[in-house]
Q: What sequence folds into this?
């Protein structure tokens, strides 16, 4: 299972510096929506981390003007870009084509996307489908049970990612479960005193 570290609500300089420190130890570094909105794709492109190993995901949360936003996101040298699963069919088809044409990955964020809509959009076989517990949500989240239920409902979806308050024990259980392709961890890594050391601990339990 891959580890994706989400960096959010910090300065771009701090994000780039931390991303480069994490490069050797994690699989994917995410620049969250707040960074994309605060600094914009042009500025991020000018300061893209110099990775030797990790991939860069920019969390655009695209909902409309999909092909345009994805072209700009890949111009900023992202490897993976996100679109909302609740977006329209034409938007999803458009960003999928751009991702294919540009050699990048499409990440479909399923936050607030109902089961009927997921069934309708589950045919992008090369896309990553993100089970995403909202940052603002008050209710708890059982990531392992949710992934198992999703896999049972949508067995044709092969690339699953999961986010939402993931800690070390949960990450270990997800890895043992063997369904999710990647796990997304934010504050449990970036808000610690030593994010690199924290990332190493997560890598130890998921590999």
A:
């Amino acid at each position: 299972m891959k580890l994706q570290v989400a960096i959010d609500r910090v300065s771009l300089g701090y994000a780039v510096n931390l991303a480069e420190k994490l490069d050797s130890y994690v699989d994917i570094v995410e620049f969250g929506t707040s960074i994309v909105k605060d600094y914009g794709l042009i500025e991020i492109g000018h300061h893209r981390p110099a990775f030797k190993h990790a991939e860069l995901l920019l969390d655009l949360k695209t909902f409309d003007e999909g092909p345009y936003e994805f072209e700009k996101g890949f111009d900023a040298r992202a490897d993976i870009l996100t679109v909302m699963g609740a977006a329209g069919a034409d938007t999803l088809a458009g960003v999928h084509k751009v991702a294919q044409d540009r050699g990048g990955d499409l990440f479909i964020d399923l936050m607030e996307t109902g089961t009927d809509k997921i069934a309708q959009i589950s045919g992008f076989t090369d896309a990553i489908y993100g089970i995403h517990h909202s940052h603002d949500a008050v209710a708890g989240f059982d990531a392992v049970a949710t992934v198992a239920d999703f896999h049972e409902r949508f067995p044709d979806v092969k690339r699953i990612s999961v986010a939402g308050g993931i800690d070390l024990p949960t990450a270990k259980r997800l890895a043992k479960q063997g369904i999710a392709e990647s796990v997304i961890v934010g504050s449990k890594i970036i808000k610690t005193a030593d994010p690199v050391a924290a990332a190493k601990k997560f890598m130890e339990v998921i590999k």
Observations:
- Residues 45 and 76 are 4 Å apart (CA to CA).
